Amino acid sequence: MNNKGNSMCAKRINKANKINRTDWIGYLVMKIKICIRVEVIRVRVLILRYMAMTAAICCLLLCVACGMSNADPAGSPPRIALITPAGTGELAEAIRLGAEAAAKEAGAELITVEAFPSEGLTYAPSNPDFTAEQIKVKQEHLQNGIYPLSERERAQVDAVSLALEQGASALLIDPLSQKALIDIIEKAQTMGVNGVVIPVILLNDEFPVKGITSVISMDNVEAGRQAGQAMAVLLGGRGRVALLGPDPVNPGLINREQGVEESLAQYPDIHVETQSVCSTRDGCWQATKQLLDQHQVDGLIALQEPASLGAADELNRRTSEKNGNKVKIVGFGSEQQQLEQLQEGKIQHLIVQNGFSAGYLGVNQAVARLNNQQVQARVTLETKLVSTDNMFWMDNQKLLFPFVQ
Questions:
Q1: Which residues make beta-bridge pairs with 186?
Q2: Dihedral through CA 220, CA 222, CA 223, CA 229, nearest 10?
């Protein structure tokens, strides 16, 4: 009985051990499955991390590539080109000083490119004197209703090409003519890096040409009114006045002429005589001589610098010949020879614009456009009426001689 009981007990123990071994194997299998799943998850996490890092690196490389493709290398200042026409004087120097001051403040690089025609070539001004003989010659060379570029104009267009080749990202220019400006804007639109249009800031002139970023100039109509009013005061509201140097194709001079006529129209005893078109000092001297020989004139309003100098030359000649000279001159400009004529009393008044401000504001407009900031389509410069009596006032000294401050 005991042996039988012991045998049954042993069977139960073996059965229990067999069950325990089965549970242990199941447990082991379960652990292995869990480990495999954990490892799979870990591998998936590593793969996702790798993909994320790869995407981040690609984005970084793309950003660097975009930055390198910009017109200006990363970290370098914007390069702004000031294009000056040949033969310019004190006004051009004042513009350059203003541009340099603004570029220094803005952290920009200013390059100045002077436009000179080819060496040894004789060239005419952009707006030649309109005598009958010259008109006839020009009509013979007229092409499709557009006058060909003069050597000066072509030199200015070439100067723009040089500035763009040197990496200019904006242009400040006082154009010689509308035709030259059209060619300049075309180059600015086609020579920009990666198709970027180069901003063109216009100084001292206004032309109806598309593609101009901003115009910085005096209000020529208002300046003409100032000149007309000054002449009316000089003549005591009575006399005969002639305009010297108007230009039928220059919008700025057309507006000055309009302002003069508007102002003088308020004086019924002032009569405006025949206008004389000229653009060089010698040509305006000849025009003044012819005008004074044929008409009784009490005052001359010279609409540009060469006209006032040419008129003063003729009046000085007549005075030296003891013919007497009581003709008054009101002119535009602030060149050194004009100021000398003003101080000597040969010119009574000059309408002067702030050239320093033109250059300064021009650079500011260019920097704003390059930084995708708002840009003014037109900025109006201040003008002052300067005479012998006030030319040495402190404010006018800063206006007339910014380069000695």
A1: none
A2: 150
Decide if 261 contacts 220 (C-beta within 8 A).
Answer: no
Task: Name which of 101, 98, 72, 71 is nearest 84 in CA terms.
Answer: 98
Q: What residues contact residue 256 under an 8 Å CB cut-off, 6+ apart?
A: 220, 221, 223, 224, 227, 246, 303, 332
Separation of alpha carbons 400 and 232, rounded Å: 24
Q: Is 213 exposed, middle or buried (0-12, 13-18, 19+ CB in 10 A)?
A: buried
Task: Map tokens 């000294």 to a residue.
Answer: 397
User: What pLDDT does 331 receive?
Assistant: 95
Select from 228, 252, 253, 256 the least CA-distant residue to 328: 228
Helix-then-strand count for the chain, H and E: 12, 12
Which pair of structure tokens corresponds to residue 373?
Answer: 């900031």
Identify whether the C-beta of residue 390 lies closer than 8 Å to the C-beta of residue 349: no
Cα 252 to Cα 55, 90, 117, 288, 382: the distances in Å are: 58, 20, 25, 22, 15
* pLDDT at 364 > cutoff 90: yes
Token pair for 29: 């299998």
Token digits of residue 286: 């000849």
pLDDT over 80 (residue 172): yes
Phi then psi dihedrals of residue 266, to 5 deg: -80, -5
Q: How many CA atoms lie within 13 A of 97 on its CB side?
A: 18
Band the pLDDT of 30: cuts 50, 70, 90: low
Closest CA relative to residue 188, chosen from 211, 215, 218 = 211
> Regarding predicted confidence, which is higher, 233 or 184?
233
CB burial of residue 307 (10 Å; 0-12, 13-18, 19+): buried
d(CA 23, CA 311): 121
Type of residue found at 263 = S
Phi, psi of 390 (to 5 degrees): -120, 5
